[in-house]
Write a structure and sequence with these properties.
The chain has 164 residues and is of the alpha/beta class. It has two domains: 2-35, no CATH class; 46-50 and 60-156, Nucleotidyltransferase, domain 5, CATH 3.30.420. It contains four helices and six strands, in the order H-H-E-E-E-E-H-E-H-E. Helix 4 links the parallel strand 5 (113-118) and strand 6.
């Protein structure tokens, strides 16, 4: 009886058959690599404000400022003139902003910086569209990318108070 227990306890360890798993991996890995979507990322150079207390700009250092709000786009230039573009449906008229900035660029070709003041709650896609609108001249639509205002600074705009 003791001999039977010893025989019952001794079980030969069988080798693990991984051939089917290896065949699956040989087919699956190349298939996944071929069908993977490779995303293309663009890097934008921005001048971000530091964490210190913001100081007002000197009048001579003040440049173009585009306020991106939930309902309107407002462009303010050095002379203090203001242009407004309301949102049309769910889109902003970035073509009109781009054209107005091209006129300003033609008048002052040495100017290459602009400040985007973005209101909290503005969608990220709108911010990127605004950056593209201020960065490139309208000729960029033909496939030629010409810098208009490549030095983009970003800040937070204080929300406008709604009239009662």
């Amino acid at each position: 009886m003791i001999g039977r227990l010893r025989k019952a306890r001794r079980v030969d360890a069988e080798e693990l058959n991984i051939t089917a798993f290896m065949n699956l991996m040989v087919v699956l890995v190349p298939f996944l690599l071929i069908t993977a979507v490779f995303t293309q990322m663009a890097v934008k150079q921005l001048n971000l404000p530091d964490n210190s207390e913001s100081q007002p700009l000197d009048e001579e250092r003040r440049s173009l400022t585009l306020f991106v709000r939930e309902e309107t786009l407002t462009l303010q230039d050095k002379s203090g003139s203001v242009r407004n573009w309301p949102r049309i449906g769910d889109r902003f008229p970035f073509d009109a902003v781009n054209t107005a900035l091209a006129e300003i660029k033609n008048a002052a070709p040495g100017e290459d910086s602009i400040t985007l003041m973005i209101e909290p709650g503005v969608p990220y896609q709108t911010v990127i569209a605004a950056m593209d609108a201020v960065h490139y001249l309208p000729a960029a639509r033909d496939g030629i990318l010409v810098d208009m205002f490549p030095r983009i600074s970003v800040g937070e705009a204080t929300p406008l108070e709604q009239a009662p």
